[in-house]
Every structure is written in C-alpha cells, then in structure tokens.
Amino acid sequence: MDTKNSTPAGHEPLDERDRLILALYAQLKAERQTREAMERAIRSGSVSLDVLEAMASDPVPVVTDSDIAALEILLEADEARRRGQEEG
User: Fold this and answer.
1) What does residue 4 show for φ and ψ, rounded to 5 degrees?
2) Could you tell me if 48 and 39 are in contact, meaning their C-beta atoms sit under 8 angstroms apart?
3) Domain membership flag for residue 59
C-alpha cells in the first residue's frame, strides 16, 4: 500500500508543499519532545557531563545544505505549477 499520498476519506491528496509542511511540523514537534526529555534527564542527573560535553561540541545542524537544495527545488516546482494554473 502506498501511504505517501494517502489521505483520510473525503480529503484532497496532499501536494509536495503540504507534505513538506506536515514533515516540518512533525520534526519541530519531535525536537520539542526531545528537548523536554533532555531537560528532565539533566534535572534528574541521568545524563553525565561527558554526554553533555559531547552533544555541545558536535551539534547537528537543524537544516543542512541538501535540505535547502530540496526546498529550493520544491519552491521552483510550486512556482511553475502556479504559473501553469494561471495561464491555463
């Protein structure tokens, strides 16, 4: 079963932009939950100083160059689709 474009009955299929918005929302929600869990773990003393130092010294970028390139492609495709709808 292809779940990539599946939607609840009676709803329009999601386009690339809508899927991106939902994915970014899910990512933000997961990051908030991770931060809250980390705060609880730090307060309770469950995370060692070594782990905290490792996390601080090797941060993972929230948005990578490939993410930006993918977003630019999506934006260009969305703009082309809009122009096509306006002309047609």
Assistant:
1) -60, -40
2) no
3) yes
pTM of the predicted model as reported, rounded to 2 decimal places? 0.48
Which residues lie closer than 8 Å to 74 by C-beta, 6 or more apart?
A: 16, 17, 20
Is residue 54 included in any domain, yes or no? yes
* Domain interval for residue 53: 16-87
Number of domains in the chain: 1
Round to whole Å and give the CA distance between 5 and 10. 13
Does residue 14 contact residue 22 with C-beta atoms inside 8 Å?
yes
CB atoms within 10 A of CB 52: 13
| 36-60 pLDDT, tens digit each | 998 999 899 998 888 888 877 876 7
